[in-house]
């Protein structure tokens, strides 16, 4: 799926594990500040296991690519088909931030969720203080619902409060 002329989303494939691991390993401190899984991704085999499980999962995960280069990940998670709701999770390598890539990628996934998957509610969660991440749902018209107190455990045994944003299908339709 196209994001911009040179950027696209491609379904995650088993052979993406090395590129993903290399990106995480090169930016461990930066990414680990907001992504608890980074601390546990110290071996490529750990990353390969995640990729293999994500490739086989019902929830779709996509690599974000600039040309052929892996620059980040985005996907649906915790999809509840019975209640027609899902969550979008994402991360982007540091040098590609501030260019609108993730905002556009989230837009593309929202369009897919609302128009193709018949989802009624899309949710995004961001740790309090992770302004680059929380600015994305704000820009896209998501509503702030509140805080999930101590919602995510980080490797240092600290819990982070999580901001919860959502957008409903009728809000999406009225903004088109």
Question: What does this protein look like?
Answer:
This protein has 176 residues and is an alpha+beta fold. It has one domain: Aminopeptidase. Helix content is 34%, strand content 34%. The chain has 6 helices and 7 strands. A 7-stranded mixed β-sheet has the order 1-2-3-4-5-7-6, sandwiched between helices. Helix 1 packs across helix 3. The longest helix is centred in the middle third of the chain and has 16 residues. The protein is globular and about 45 Å long. The two termini are 19 Å apart.
Give the helices and strands, then pairings.
Blueprint: E1 7-11, H1 17-26, H2 28-32, H3 44-56, E2 61-66, E3 69-80, E4 85-92, H4 101-116, E5 121-127, H5 131-139, E6 143-153, E7 159-168, H6 169-175
Parallel strand pairs: 4-5
Antiparallel strand pairs: 1-2, 2-3, 3-4, 5-7, 6-7
Helix pairs in contact: 1-3
Primary descriptors:
single chain; 176 residues; alpha+beta; Aminopeptidase; seven-stranded mixed sheet; 6 helices; globular
Quick structural gist:
By secondary structure, this protein is of the alpha+beta class. It has helices at residues 17-26, 28-32, 44-56, 101-116, 131-139, 169-175, and strands at residues 7-11, 61-66, 69-80, 85-92, 121-127, 143-153, 159-168.
Strand order of the largest sheet: 1-2-3-4-5-7-6
CATH homologous superfamily placement: Gcn5-related N-acetyltransferase (GNAT)
Structural class call reads alpha+beta
Mean pLDDT across the residues is 93
The tally of helices reads 6
Tell me about the largest β-sheet: 7 strands, mixed
Instruction: Predict the CATH topology.
Output: Aminopeptidase
Provide the helix percentage: 25-40%
Number of strands: 7
CATH architectural label: 3-Layer(aba) Sandwich
